[in-house]
Design a protein that fits this description.
It contains 5 helices and 7 strands. By secondary structure, the chain is α/β, with parallel strands linked by helices. Strands 4-5-7-6 form a 4-stranded mixed sheet. It has a 3-stranded mixed sheet with strand order 1-3-2. It starts with a helix and ends with a strand.
């Protein structure tokens, strides 16, 4: 855990024995993909979107939510938080196709935020989420928190 993030949660006394680090990226399928690096080496975020940052990249193993859940014997997700630099659309559409419905979603919509969404796929996904009983609880600069109502 990054030290700045740990500083913010340490008072909650998290039980790290209940956390598992999985050394792979999240995507719509199991494969290996290029993660493009930022031009500033001090920034750690990378993106599958080739024109989001720079031209240098790392190759990373990725897998779907469904496959990762199956590997870990999980049958539900309470909270899914995604800040995955433009891949959120593919991941969430596949999640819905697989009929996986976390109770809460916290999503940063990077394509729209960085003006890389000329075809309005972000708006289409938000509409699809709402059609699947997700209600927007908060929208702060395209960091949107949803709750699934039944």
């Amino acid at each position: 855990i990054q030290s700045d993030y740990l500083y913010n949660i340490i008072d909650l006394e998290p039980d790290f024995d209940n956390c598992t680090y999985i050394n792979k990226g999240l995507y719509k399928e199991k494969t290996k993909l290029k993660f493009y690096k930022q031009t500033n080496p001090d920034y750690v975020s990378q993106s599958l979107v080739s024109n989001m940052f720079g031209n240098d990249y790392d190759e990373v193993e990725v897998d779907s939510i469904k496959n990762i859940m199956k590997e870990n014997n999980h049958n539900k997700i309470d909270l899914l938080k995604l800040d995955i630099e433009g891949s959120e659309i593919d991941v969430l559409n596949q999640m819905l196709d697989d009929e996986i419905y976390p109770k809460y979603l916290c999503i940063e919509f990077d394509l729209l935020l960085k003006k890389k969404d000329p075809n309005q796929i972000t708006q289409n996904l938000v509409k699809r989420l709402q059609e699947n009983n997700y209600k927007i609880l908060k929208n702060k600069n395209l960091n949107i928190t949803f709750e699934r109502l039944l």
